[in-house]
Amino acid sequence: MPRWLWILLAASLAALLWAASRDEAGPQALRDGATVRCVPPPGEFDIRQPLQTRSTREMPPFRLAGHDVTPLAGFAIEARVLAREDYRFDRNAALSPTDLALGWGRMAREEYYGPLDISQSGRWYFYRWGREGPPLPLDEIIASSANMHMIPADADVAAALARVRPGQTVRLRGWLVEARADDGWTWRSSLSRNDSGDGGCELVYVCALASY
């Protein structure tokens, strides 16, 4: 058999194994499934400001992928996707495979977020500006953008999340949650849009998501 054909076969086999490993390593939360159905909270979408509402009995605490998950508040948002980052190997990936950096208000407009150098790493969202300075007051950037950890409630939400790309607008509805593992490890959502730094990200159990 010609050497080039051996190389082609080996490359094809490697690609198949890589794809299989990606499927097998999908979010543990999807494989296990939640113990209750994700009930979307009510409320209107608004590109100017996310909507946060009180938790209700319609969405009680539940078990998911070895965690006790407690809904803290209802959440609905329409926002521009500033960046996305996928995770597979950190502990958080068992629940949340993807972070979306989202902007609303003036941070949803390219004329304002475009001049920023935006990136994500280690479950953080970073932005930098050049010598001309920030395009908006820093307090406004903090209050109208955030890095959000996405927990897809089902395979349909996971598929929709996989299609999201920077520059698109997303509409999502779900719950800000706290997740507590059996060993005591806790991951808790921020409940404010005005905070930043450690603890300033939203942890969102997503019932429904659409992008355009």
Shape descriptor reads globular
Rg over alpha carbons = 19 Å
Record field, number of beta strands: 10
Spans of at least 5 consecutive residues with low confidence: 4-9, 11-25
Strand order of the largest sheet: 3-4-7-10-8
Q: Tell me about the biggest sheet?
A: 5 strands, mixed, barrel
Mean pLDDT: 89
- Strand content is 35-45%
- Give the ordered list of helices and strands: HHEEEEHEEHEHEEE
Count the helices. How many? 5
Helicity level = 10-25%
SS-derived structural category: alpha+beta
Straight-line distance between termini: 49 Å
What are its keywords?
212 residues, five-stranded mixed barrel, 10 strands
Write up this protein.
- The chain is of the alpha+beta class.
- Helix content is 22%, strand content 36%.
- The protein has 5 helices and 10 strands.
- The strands form 2 sheets. It has a 5-stranded mixed barrel. Strands 5-6 form a two-stranded antiparallel ribbon.
- Strand 5 (117-121) and strand 6 (124-128) form a beta hairpin.
- The longest helix has 22 residues, at 3-24.
- It is globular and about 50 Å long.
- The termini are far apart.
SSE layout and pairings?
Elements: H1 3-24, H2 28-32, E1 51-54, E2 62-64, E3 67-86, E4 98-103, H3 110-113, E5 117-121, E6 124-128, H4 138-143, E7 145-152, H5 155-163, E8 169-181, E9 186-188, E10 202-211
Parallel strand pairs: 7-10
Antiparallel strand pairs: 1-3, 2-3, 3-4, 3-8, 4-7, 5-6, 8-9, 8-10
Quick structural overview:
The chain is 22% helix and 36% strand.
